[in-house]
Amino acid sequence: MAASTLITVAPTGAEADKAAVPALPVTLDELVGTAKECEAAGAAVIHVHIRDQSARPTLDRGRLADTVAALREGTDLIVQLSTGGAVTDSFPARLAVLDAAPDACSLTCGTVNFGDDVFSNPWTFIKELYQLTQERQVVPEFELFDLGHVATLHRLLREFGPPAGGHVHCDLVMGVPGGMPGDVATLAAAVAALPDGATWSATGIGRTTLPVLFGALGAGGHLRVGMEDTLSFARGRPVARNAELVERAAELARFAQRPPMRPAEAREFLSIPARPA
Ligand code: KMH
Ligand code: ZN
Fold first, then answer.
1. Tens-place pLDDT, residues 31-63
2. pLDDT for 65-118, tens place per residue?
3. CA atoms within 13 A on the CB side of 74
4. Is the pLDDT of residue 277 over 70?
5. Which of 35, 196, 221, 226 could make an SS bond with 9 (beta carbons 3.0 to 4.6 A apart)?
6. Contact indicator for 83, 107 with CB cutoff of 8 Å
7. Which of 8, 12, 49, 203 to probe ligand 1 with, by most ligand atoms within 8 A of CB?
8. pLDDT of res. 109
9. CA proximity to 97, closest of 62, 131, 45, 139
10. Under 8 Å between Cβ of 115 and 177
């Protein structure tokens, strides 16, 4: 079992509405402030979705590049840009995310019903994005919303070889309405199906947050938390700031005798090249 715990914060996402959730970080200043707080609380990776001046999700290239630069300036966090974007984003715009040259990116391994929408990831797109990550040396995190996505990950590795850096790290995204349920039995089945040598984090959407968090810690996995995935801290108590979700995850990780990894250790763990000084 890993001696320490990788904590990723996903502070914004593409779905929550700023008007309904004022604590959601949507401006660059809010995002960098959140990132600093979350790093201090124990996060080592930030999974980033950005918003435009009206707080709507965007994949604007200039904004993405400015965001990567600002997060690097303000923190040591590993900057992982979302290539999933919003369900309305086009495939070319999602591929162009890599132009911002992040440390890492998400790479979802299949299509999934996503509430009333469809998060579309056909094989042709997955393999194009994967080959682009290899060419640009951006380390992918394989997002797995369903057991079929695990099979696609095996196919990807078989047909195109190892990812940039050589290490396979996955994130089990559980409890999306339309994806695999967020419970411990499903977590165990998904983990058992992962490629040999792969490491993994898990996140539970909404009310599955805590069962998935406890299950992941108990099974030797790593954690993703944040307002992309849950807006409630407890029943009837909205999340006040992302850092409180990281603080809770870090506290439970310490309690499990697997304290949070710091960013330098996480870089080594994920085989992400050190940033030039
Ligand atoms: N916003 C979801 C449709 C990712 O970041 O790669 C997709 C998502 C996955 O959040
Ligand atoms: Zn995301």
1. 999 999 999 999 999 999 999 999 999 999 999
2. 999 999 999 999 999 999 999 999 999 999 999 999 999 999 999 999 999 999
3. 21
4. no
5. 226
6. yes
7. 49
8. 99
9. 62
10. yes
